[in-house]
Amino acid sequence: MGGLPLQDASSTLALPGSQPNQGLEVTKSGTESKPKKKICCACPETKKLRDECIVEHGEEACAKWIEAHRKCLRAEGFNV
């Protein structure tokens, strides 16, 4: 029975988004942390304040709220 040798299942390629460890807080190396949530769902309080300010006053007048939201996102593990 000739043919190609079978490969170990651990050496197969994974499709993007199909990795079983996605969403874990710590990577295999233990040094980097990944966000637990999607960016759209993180920091709802600062997001609401930022969005309301931008709608009412324009982006230029809301730097304080924009930076507060970015700070919150960074604390959640996002690189913004």
From TrEMBL:
Keyword Transcription regulation: no
Keyword terms of this UniProt record: Chaperone, Copper, Disulfide bond, Metal-binding, Mitochondrion
Compartment(s) of residence: Mitochondrion intermembrane space
PROSITE patterns, per database record: CHCH
GO annotation, cellular component aspect: mitochondrial intermembrane space
Annotated region (Disordered), positions in chain: 1-36
Family label: Belongs to the COX17 family.
The name this protein goes by in its record: Cytochrome c oxidase copper chaperone
